[in-house]
Design brief:
The chain has 332 residues and is α+β, with helices and mostly antiparallel strands. The protein is built from five helices and 18 strands.
């Protein structure tokens, strides 16, 4: 077993911290850094619109996406197998037995993080601007929520019949719910996982000096998408992202071909090297807290919460940021 020490200075009350990489067989154990103090990363976010958006994202993160779907309209399609968490943390998914529904409708989702200016047929639903797009097999309606944010409803059915009439009925019944604030902490459908209680950018306080500037984009309250300093186009060479999402629990034991198994602050993870200097680390932070779902076949299927760190600055940078992100998840 070999041991390598990576030392980086952090401009906080601690003069320096050490990231230890312990290489053993096919895996690596990567520890984190001390937690920074001070004003925090938000004081150094640009542009101003992104800084203002962070507070709005804090509020949206605590909303229950399933609370924006009318239950009567769902049951009019058929009694669903499942209503609850989806792949994306800001989504709710409804799943039916497509053998018992009109036009073999199988599932629908609502996502809370779409730019309100959409494409497709424009209309008004309950006083809100809506954009409808019909692709055989899938219909989507984007409904304006507030400011630059829209909610995105999709319905998936038979490939040869439009699902838009059914989705239009669901969205029309659900639109008044956008004036309410259903909360995750009171949800009877969303799992009691951790990410909705966390700021996905929190690790930036520990990962970078206190005077580091960040250029941020995006509406997703479960993702931290940033460039160090200013935005570099078109190569994204200084771009990093931290994203929480959900997967099947069985995937935590699977290492895709070409990927590497890691231990990030004691958590199982995989690492993937992409094109250029891109590196992606997936840490299975929720493996000890699975939540129940019903899959598209109607069978029970436990899922877990995971976090993904992607850096265009190479795997060393991705590992350091992943370690601080896992530590922030464990701490809060």
């Amino acid at each position: 077993m070999t041991r390598a020490a990576l030392t980086r200075a952090i401009a906080v009350v601690f003069s320096a911290t050490v990231v230890m990489l312990l290489v053993a067989g096919c895996g690596q154990d990567i520890d984190g850094t001390a937690v920074a103090t001070g004003r925090g990363y938000r004081a150094n976010v640009t542009p101003q619109r992104a800084q203002d958006r962070l507070s709005e994202q804090d509020q949206v993160r605590r909303l229950d996406p399933c609370g924006f779907i009318d239950s009567g309209a769902i049951n009019a399609i058929g009694r669903p197998w499942y209503v609850g968490a989806a792949l994306s943390q800001d989504e709710c998914e409804v799943r039916w037995d497509r053998n018992t529904t009109p036009n073999r409708i199988g599932y629908m989702t609502i996502g809370l993080s779409v730019t309100a200016d959409g494409t497709g047929s424009k209309s008004t639903i309950s006083g809100r601007t809506a954009y409808e797009s019909d692709h055989l097999g899938m219909c989507s309606i984007l409904l304006h929520y507030a400011g630059e944010r829209g909610f995105h409803y999709t319905l998936h059915g038979s490939d040869d019949v439009s699902s838009c009439p059914e989705l239009r009925t669901i969205v029309t019944a659900s639109a008044p719910l956008l004036s309410t604030r259903p909360m995750r902490e009171a949800s009877t459908t969303m799992p009691k996982t951790k990410a909705w209680t966390l700021d996905p950018c929190d690790a930036l306080n520990a990962a970078y000096p206190s005077d580091q500037r960040f250029y941020m984009v995006g509406l997703d309250p479960f993702s931290c998408d940033f460039w160090l300093g200013t935005r570099a186009n078109p190569d994204d060479s200084n771009r990093n992202t931290i994203t929480y999402f959900n997967i099947q629990q069985t995937q935590a034991a699977f290492v895709p071909d070409g990927d590497r198994r890691l231990q990030i602050a004691g958590i199982n993870a995989t690492e993937h090297t992409g094109s250029g200097n891109s590196c992606t680390i997936t840490a299975y932070v929720g493996v000890s807290n699975p939540f129940p779902t019903i899959n598209h076949r109607g069978d029970p299927e436990p899922w877990i919460e995971v976090l993904e760190v992607r850096s265009h600055q190479g795997c060393d940078a991705a590992r350091r940021l992943a370690a601080d992100t896992v530590k922030a998840y464990q701490r809060d």
